[in-house]
Amino acid sequence: MRRLKIKEIADSIIRYGYLNPKYFNWICSNLSRQELKLFSNLLSKGIKYSNVIVSFSGELSDINKKRINMMFPNKKILFKQDNGNIVGGVRFEYDDFILDYSISGIIEKFLKDIKENL
To answer: Which residue range(s) make up the domain with 72?
Structure first.
């Protein structure tokens, strides 16, 4: 039963995106070390599966942002401008998947395929 309550707490934090400091203090003082570890794991997995990280270079238009939001309903989209690693295109990270449609990612795939086939 205690495990279900811990999962409910983690799920509500993920849903609302906020943890009141009063509740944080209660969690830290009332949960055992093993329960805190469970809480931490549930929270990190929940955040990972409820968010999508979209990395891009340059500027992303509002139309493209709306399209991306429609591609991932019921997920929180985090837009991250990454001019250093992405030359052009876009990269999606969600759940356990990485979809790399950037120019640098495509070049890396080509080079990897060439090395494997030589």
So the answer is: 51-117
Is residue 100 located within the same domain as residue 45? no
Measuring CA to CA, which residue among 116, 61, 48 is closest to residue 90?
61
For residues 63 and 41, membership in a common domain is answered with: no
Are 15 and 69 within one domain? Answer: no
Tens of pLDDT, residue by residue over 28-60, are: 888 899 999 999 999 988 888 888 999 998 888
Token pair for 67: 């399209």
Q: Which of 61, 107, 53, 39 is nearest to 82 (CA)?
A: 53
Report the distance separating Cα 63 and Cα 74, nearest Å. 19
Per-residue model confidence (pLDDT) at position 16: 82
Residue 38 and residue 60: Cα distance in Å, rounded?
38
- Domains in the chain: how many in total? 2
Closest to 26 (Cα-Cα) out of 17, 15, 16, 39: 39
pLDDT < 50: residue spans in the chain: none
